Amino acid sequence: MSAKKITKYDLVESVYQNTKHEKRVVQDIVENLLIELKTVLKEGATIELRGFGTFEPRLRKGRTRARNPKTGEQLSVAPHYVAAFRSGQELKKALWDLPVTEDKKD
Predict the structure, then answer these.
(1) How far apart are CA 93 and CA 34, in angstroms?
(2) Are 37 and 53 in contact (CB under 8 A)?
(3) What does residue 49 show for φ and ψ, rounded to 5 degrees?
(4) E strand or H helix at 59, and its extent?
(5) pTM for the complete prediction?
(6) Which residue windows are transmembrane per the record (predicted)?
(7) 79: which residues sit within 8 A by CB, 6+ positions away?
(8) What is the pLDDT of residues 11-63, one digit of tens each?
(9) Local confidence band at 89 (pLDDT 50, 70, 90 cut-offs)
(10) CA distance 49 to 87
(11) Other CB atoms within 10 A of residue 70 CB
(12) Fewer beta carbons within 10 Å, N or C terminal of the chain?
């Protein structure tokens, strides 16, 4: 398995090659999809993409004692939401048998 990082540009290029639609149209669709996903999550809703997974806003509890890793400064962190992803069954099955490489081990 390659350790390559895929960017939004790479996704647009791949969809463009697979569909032969105009690249600008594909780029607009991908951009609008990401904007819509962000908007829905900001409203507190859950996004379920069957066969792929679920995105949801998840509350992280605050801490009275936290540390800035760069400066070492002590600070407090208020409760806040983060975007969480749970993979769907099809995605889990597709990734289950990926070979483990040395750089990917825990």
Answers:
(1) 25
(2) no
(3) -115, 100
(4) strand 53-60
(5) 0.75
(6) none
(7) 59, 60, 61, 62
(8) 999 999 999 899 999 999 999 999 999 999 999 999 999 999 999 999 999 88
(9) very high
(10) 9
(11) 6
(12) C
User: What's the rounded Cα separation, in Å, for the pair 91 and 47?
Assistant: 16
With tokens 């995105």, the residue in question is 55
Q: Which amino acid is at 94?
A: A
Place of tokens 């069954």: 89
pLDDT for 60: 93
Q: Say which amino acid occupies 56.
A: E
The DSSP secondary-structure symbol of 4 reads P
**Tokens matching residue 71:** 């400066």
- What does the alpha-carbon distance between residue 48 and residue 52 come to, in Å, rounded to a whole number? 8
User: Per this entry, what is the length of the chain?
Assistant: 106
* Token couple for 30: 């991908």
